[in-house]
Design goal:
With 205 residues, the chain is mainly alpha-helical. The protein is 73% helix and 0% strand.
Length: 205
């Protein structure tokens, strides 16, 4: 369950780019109320992205707040007509990268979305393998991934972003992103394969 602070900072109304452009223009002139509307419109997605990248609630919430602080201070850098959500995503990804370099590995909470993708495969886990165990094992495997591979996988698989957008967010080429996602998937399947095989053998007994 999300904390009260996150719910309070979230506006579930449909995103309106035209109105958002007005808020950005006002915020550039120092209108804090206009920027607060922007925060409410985007906080949930920014927090979710950061939670997937850094792996725990406390760091994700702190970084999400820092993301909007930096965005407010640097609104003059946003290109006229540029995509504010994409620009905000770049700030979030860079913050997560800096956090990883300075803090290293921390306790990572399960990323359930990866279990859905694993179970969609024909060679996925047998029915008797509990979802909780799948989530835990895949979460542990994702935590072992080199950070660039983890970031590419999260943005592409869980966030559902296309390769060009992931490349823009990470500051690399789309071909690099494709390679990173491919390597991440292969490593994950290699690491969880023994678990799936042992469960499959057990079901035959």
């Amino acid at each position: 369950m999300e904390c009260e602070a996150i719910r309070a900072m979230t506006d579930c109304r449909k995103h309106d780019p035209a109105r958002e452009a007005e808020w950005i223009a006002l915020a550039r002139e120092g209108d804090r109320a206009a920027f607060d509307r922007i925060v409410r419109a985007h906080f949930r997605r920014v927090y979710a992205l950061l939670h997937r990248l850094v792996g725990n609630h406390e760091d994700a919430e702190d970084l999400a707040q820092e993301c909007f602080v930096r965005a407010y201070r640097n609104l003059h850098h946003l290109r006229p007509g540029g995509s504010f959500p994409s620009w905000l995503g770049q700030i979030a990804v860079h913050l997560a990268q800096d956090h990883h370099r300075s803090r290293g590995r921390r306790r990572v909470e399960p990323l359930e979305g990866f279990a859905d993708h694993a179970s969609d495969r024909e060679d996925g886990p047998p029915a008797e393998l509990s979802r909780r165990e799948v989530v835990r094992k895949i979460g542990e495997a994702v935590e072992r991934l080199p950070y660039p591979l983890r970031t590419a996988l999260v943005l592409r698989v869980l966030e559902g972003r296309d390769y060009d957008e992931v490349a823009d967010l990470c500051g690399v080429r789309p071909t690099t992103v494709r390679t990173q996602v491919m390597k991440a998937r292969r490593l994950l399947m290699r690491w969880i394969a023994p678990l799936l095989e042992s469960k499959g053998e057990g079901s035959e007994r």
